[in-house]
Amino acid sequence: MANVQYYDVILKPVVTEKSMELMADKKYTFLVHTEATKNQVKEAVEKMFAGTKVASVHTMNLNGKNKRRGATTGKTAKTKKAIVQLTADSAEIEIFEGL
């Protein structure tokens, strides 16, 4: 496994209708590095967003989709998604506040 630092773990937030509904329960969805573990995701969220305390992390691996352009076929890159549950006394993550 590669040496993944905490600032390389979280790639970007996932902004969908379902992820916005989960924010009411203090669940936040991120695209993460494909080799990141649950412990690394937990550490990254707690270090990057001050005042947050992670209760649990659920991860899922997403395979690339088959794409076609003319006669040429290929696949998009594999991704990994993490849903982070914060504790009740934890601070909110502020990048989602204006959405």
Sum up the structure in keywords.
alpha+beta, 99 residues, four-stranded antiparallel beta sheet, Alpha-Beta Plaits, two-stranded antiparallel ribbon
What is CATH's topology name?
A: Alpha-Beta Plaits
Number of beta strands? 6
Order of strands side by side in the largest beta sheet?
A: 1-2-6-3
Strand proportion: 35-45%
**How many structural domains can be distinguished in the coordinates?**
1
Please report the distance between the alpha carbons of the first and last residues. Answer: 35 Å
Main sheet record = 4 strands, antiparallel
Which CATH architecture is right? 2-Layer Sandwich
Low-confidence stretches: none
Helix content: 10-25%
The coarse silhouette is globular
Alpha-beta classification? alpha+beta
Assembly type of the shown chains? single chain
Mean pLDDT: 92
Structure description:
- It is a single chain.
- The protein has one domain: RRM (RNA recognition motif) domain (Alpha-Beta Plaits).
- With 99 residues, the chain is α+β, with helices and mostly antiparallel strands.
- A hairpin with a 2-residue loop joins strand 4 and strand 5 (72-75).
- Helix content is 21%, strand content 35%.
- The N and C termini lie far apart (35 Å).
- It has helices at residues 6-9, 17-22, 38-48, and strands at residues 10-13, 27-32, 54-62, 66-69, 72-75, 79-86.
